[in-house]
From TrEMBL:
Binding sites annotated in the UniProt record for (6R)-10-formyltetrahydrofolate: R354, N399
This protein's name: Phosphoribosylglycinamide formyltransferase
Pathway noted in the entry: Purine metabolism; IMP biosynthesis via de novo pathway; N(2)-formyl-N(1)-(5-phospho-D-ribosyl)glycinamide from N(1)-(5-phospho-D-ribosyl)glycinamide (10-formyl THF route): step 1/1
EC number: 2.1.2.2
Family: Belongs to the GART family.
All residue ranges annotated as the Cytidyltransferase-like domain in the record: 29-124
Region feature (Disordered): 159-181
Length: 485
C-alpha cells in the first residue's frame, strides 16, 4: 500500500494482521457499501474499531453495489467512498472487492475480529462467510444499529422531500461495544465442528482452530453469547450478562514496540494514510549522550514518577531524576523517592488547597535551580503553579492530564468522559502555562470506553497509557526542539 493512498490490498492487510498478531494485538475487519455515509455508519465504525487495535474496511466496488442494490446505486464512486472512510479516525485501511461476498478476503486476511451490524444474526450471515470466519478462528461481533439511520432511508427522504429525523441526545447513548478479548465466552462447546473450508492460495500454513466464539450485542450494557466449538485455550469462565472489567495491559518493551494509538506534535513527522502508521504511531525512542535532568513535583501516589524511574532503569529514557518535591509531607511519592535514594524536598503549601503561596513557589524554584533541573515534570501535582516557576522554567514544565485535551479539563476527567457518553478518551502530555490544562499539547494516547465500564475501569486504562507516554515524550525532549535551559 502506498503511503499517499487510501486504498490497500488484501495481501497488505494480511501482512498488517500478522504484524498486529506478533505484537499480541487484534485486527478488526468489517465490510459494506458505505454509499451515503451517515451518523449510523460513523458510530458503527467507531464501535468496531474499539473491539481491537486496528480496523480495516472491505468496501464493495461499484459493480458489487449494483449487483446487490440495483442499477441506481451506488450514489458515490468507489474511490470517493474509500476516501471518505479513510477520513474517519477509526478506520486504518480500506480494501475494495468486486465479489458479492467477502469470503475470499476473510480467507486471506484471517481477521481476529469480524464486526457486522445488528440487522444481521448468526443465522442470516452468509454461510460461506461464516464458515470462513470459523476456519480463521475469528470472533464475530454483531453491533447494535442506530435507529432510523440507513442509506436507503436517507435516499427515500430525499426523494420525498422529507426533513431529517431529530437525533436522540448523545449523553445517555451507550459508549461502545466491548472489546472482543473482553467479551463473555461460553464454557460449553455443544455444537459439532463446522465443515472445513479449503485454504486460499495466499494463506500461510497455520494450525486450524476448532471454531470461533460469537458475541451478539443486543442491548446496551448486555451481551448475549451464542457458541460454536472453540479452542480450549480460548475458553474462559465469565458472567454472560455483563462485560468484565478490563485489566490494564503491561507496558511494552522497546523491542515489542508501543502497541497503541498515539498522536504527537513534538517531533516533525510526515502525515501518511499508511495503515501501519495509523495503528501504531509510536513516538521513536532516541537515547541521548547526556541524561536529561528531571525535577518531579507531585502530591499523591507517585505512579507516574515510578513509571519514569522504570523507564530510566530499563534504558528507555535517557534521563536522571535530580530531585523529587511534594506539597504533601506524608505522600507516597516522597516515600518512594526515599526508597530510591533520591533527593527529596517537602514544601509547606500553606492553607490554600489549590494555590501555592509565593513563598512556596519561590522555594520550589530555588530547589529546582540548586539541583540543576532542566525539565520539571508534574505527576499529580494538585496546586496551581505561578511565577517565578512559570517564567523561570518557561516551556520546561510538563504535565500529564487524564483526558484528550482540550476535552474535559480539571478534576476527574475520566469521570467526565464516562458521564458524557464518550466512546474513547485518553491522556495528554502538555506544557504548563498560566491556564489550567491549557498549555501546548505535546502528545496524546487514546483508550476506548466500553459498555459497562466503571470510572475505575477507565481510570486504570488511562493510567496504563500515561506510564508509557510520559517517558516517551521526555526521551524525545531535545530532538523535538524543546528547551532544556
Amino acid at each position: 500500500m502506498s503511503q499517499d493512498s487510501w486504498i490497500t490490498t488484501a495481501e497488505a492487510v494480511r501482512d498488517f494482521r500478522d504484524q498486529l498478531d506478533a505484537e499480541g494485538r487484534k485486527l478488526v475487519f468489517t465490510n459494506g457499501c458505505f454509499d451515503l455515509l451517515h451518523a449510523g455508519h460513523v458510530r458503527y465504525l467507531r464501535q468496531a474499531r474499539a473491539l481491537g487495535d486496528g480496523l480495516v474496511v472491505a468496501l464493495n466496488s461499484d459493480a458489487s453495489v449494483r449487483a446487490l442494490k440495483g442499477e441506481a446505486r451506488p450514489i458515490n464512486h468507489q474511490e470517493d467512498r474509500a476516501e471518505i472512510l479513510m477520513a474517519l479516525q477509526s478506520v486504518n485501511g480500506v480494501v475494495i472487492f468486486d465479489d458479492p461476498r467477502v469470503t475470499k478476503l476473510i480467507e486471506i486476511i484471517r481477521p481476529h475480529v469480524y464486526a457486522k451490524g445488528g440487522d444481521y444474526t448468526l443465522e442470516t450471515l452468509d454461510a460461506g462467510e461464516r464458515e470462513a470466519l470459523i476456519k480463521a478462528g475469528s470472533t464475530i461481533c454483531l453491533l447494535p444499529l442506530v435507529p432510523g439511520r440507513s442509506t436507503t432511508n436517507t435516499i427515500g427522504r430525499m426523494r420525498a422531500g422529507e426533513d431529517a429525523p431529530v437525533p436522540a441526545p448523545p449523553k445517555n447513548t451507550p459508549p461502545v461495544a466491548a472489546a472482543a478479548d473482553d467479551a463473555p465466552v461460553p464454557v460449553s462447546v455443544p455444537l459439532p465442528a463446522a465443515a472445513s473450508v479449503p485454504a486460499p492460495e495466499l494463506e500461510p500454513t497455520a494450525p486450524e482452530p476448532a471454531a470461533a466464539a460469537v458475541a451478539v450485542l443486543q442491548e446496551p450494557g448486555k451481551v448475549v453469547t451464542q457458541s460454536i466449538p472453540l479452542p480450549l485455550s480460548e475458553i474462559r469462565k465469565t458472567n454472560t450478562q455483563s462485560i468484565p472489567p478490563v485489566e490494564p495491559r503491561k507496558p511494552a518493551t522497546v523491542t515489542q514496540g508501543i502497541p497503541r494509538v498515539i498522536t504527537t506534535t513534538i517531533a516533525p513527522r510526515e502525515e501518511t494514510l499508511s495503515i501501519q502508521s495509523r495503528a501504531t504511531g509510536a513516538v521513536p525512542l532516541s537515547p541521548r549522550v547526556l541524561p536529561l535532568r528531571i525535577g518531579v513535583l507531585g502530591s499523591g501516589q507517585g505512579t507516574n514518577f515510578e513509571a519514569i524511574q522504570r523507564a530510566i532503569d530499563d534504558g528507555r529514557l535517557n534521563a536522571e531524576i535530580a530531585v523529587v518535591i511534594s506539597d504533601v509531607e506524608g505522600s507516597r511519592l516522597l516515600a518512594k523517592a526515599r526508597e530510591s535514594g533520591l533527593s527529596r524536598v517537602f514544601v509547606d503549601p500553606g492553607p490554600n488547597a489549590r494555590v501555592l503561596p509565593i513563598e512556596a513557589q519561590e522555594e520550589i524554584y530555588e530547589q529546582l535551580k540548586a539541583h540543576e533541573v532542566q525539565v520539571v515534570v508534574l505527576t499529580g501535582f494538585m496546586r496551581v503553579i505561578k511565577d517565578p516557576l512559570l517564567s523561570g522554567y518557561k516551556d520546561r514544565i510538563v504535565n500529564i492530564h487524564p483526558s484528550l485535551l482540550p476535552k474535559f479539563k480539571g478534576k476527574a476527567a475520566w469521570v467526565q468522559a464516562l458521564e458524557e457518553g464518550e466512546v474513547e478518551t485518553g491522556c495528554t502530555v502538555h506544557l504548563v502555562n498560566a491556564e489550567v490544562d491549557g498549555g501546548r499539547v505535546l502528545a496524546q494516547a487514546k483508550v476506548p470506553i466500553h459498555i459497562g465500564d466503571t470510572a475505575d475501569d477507565v481510570f486504570y486504562r488511562i493510567q496504563a497509557e500515561e506510564h508509557l507516554l510520559l517517558p516517551e515524550v521526555l526521551n524525545n525532549w531535545r530532538e523535538s526542539g524543546l528547551p532544556v535551559g
